[in-house]
Write a structure and sequence with these properties.
single chain; alpha/beta; Mannitol-specific EII, Chain A; six-stranded mixed sheet; 44% helix
């Protein structure tokens, strides 16, 4: 069973410079794709396609952009932090300051693992939100992911 600890890498934890949703997703997807040797444009397109269905802003300044794709053979995650917040169309209307991107294989037999990882990612974000937002060195979020 994949977990946040096994799907993340320090290179996938980034301070986002973007001020808009699409640009933030592009930055985070690029960081994830580069360290996981994926096609960044294809990963972004998959994430944006999912985002068009409904916002992945989950309230309380958090977002969990996610998608499944046949191009992926494994699960990958990344974390992005935006100090100023981004309008993400979240249900509570709050700007998003912390994003956890999750992408995984699109095969039907991997759906149960995907849903478990999605649930775990949500729990990780909620449990560690304040700590991650307060970190001086964002890369320390990697240690938090290894403890979860």
């Amino acid at each position: 069973m994949p977990s946040i600890a096994t799907t993340i890498a320090p290179e996938r934890i980034v301070e986002l410079q973007a001020s808009g949703k699409r640009a933030a997703l592009a930055e985070l997807a690029a960081a994830v794709a580069a360290s996981a040797e994926l096609d960044g444009e294809a990963l972004l397109a998959t994430i944006l396609e999912r985002e068009e269905l409904s916002s992945t802003g989950i309230e309380d300044a958090l977002a969990l952009p996610h998608a499944r794709s046949p191009m992926l053979k494994t699960f990958v995650t990344g974390i992005g932090r935006c100090a100023d917040g981004i309008d993400f169309g979240s249900p509570d209307g709050q700007p998003v300051k912390l994003l956890l991107l999750l992408a995984g294989p699109g095969q039907a037999d991997r759906a149960p693992d995907y849903l478990k990882l999605l649930r775990s990612a949500t729990q990780f974000l909620r449990a560690n939100k304040e700590r991650i937002l307060e970190l001086e060195d964002l890369k320390m979020a990697y240690a938090l992911s290894q403890e979860f």
